[in-house]
Amino acid sequence: MDAKLIEKLDRRRYKYLLWMTIVLGLGYPAFIFKNFFPSDKFLSPLFIIGCIGAFLFIALLIAWGVEYSNIKKDPELKAALNDELYILHGYKSMQCSLLVTVTVSLALNVLSDVSLAQNWATPLTGSLVATIIIHVSAMTWLIARLIFMRK
After folding, report:
1. Is the dihedral of CA 13, 18, 22, 25 positive or negative?
2. Residue 56's pLDDT band (cuts 50, 70, 90)
3. Domain chopping of the chain, boundaries
4. How far apart are CA 41 and CA 22, in angstroms?
5. What's the predicted TM-score (pTM) here?
C-alpha cells in the first residue's frame, strides 16, 4: 500500500473532522441561544445561522460517508487507515465524551431545579437541557478525536 496515499487520506479525514467541529461549534449553539432570545419572527437570525450550520454539517457527513464508502471497497486501504491506534483513539474519545456528558447532565439537572425555583426569565426546560447535552456530547467527542488524532 502506498504510504503517501494513506497519509493523504488520513489528513483528509482529519480535515473533515476539523470542519465538522467548526461547523457544529458555530451553528448548533444558535439553536440553544434562540431559547434565551425569543423572536416572533420565524426566520430569526439565530434560526437561520442554526439552519446553515445544520446544512453544512449534514453536507460534510455525506461527503465523509461517500469517501469512507470508497475506502471500504479496498480492504488493504481500510485496514491501513483503521489501524489499532485509530480505534483506540475512538474509544478514548468516547470515554471523554461520556465523562463530560454525565457531568454536564448533573450540572444542568441542578440548574434546572434552581431555574424553576427562582423563576428565571428563561427556565431550563427538558427540551433545552436535552439540546445542550446533545451538543456538548457531540462537541466533546469531536474535539477529543481531533486531539488524539493529532498526536
Report:
1. positive
2. very high
3. 1-82, 83-151
4. 27
5. 0.81
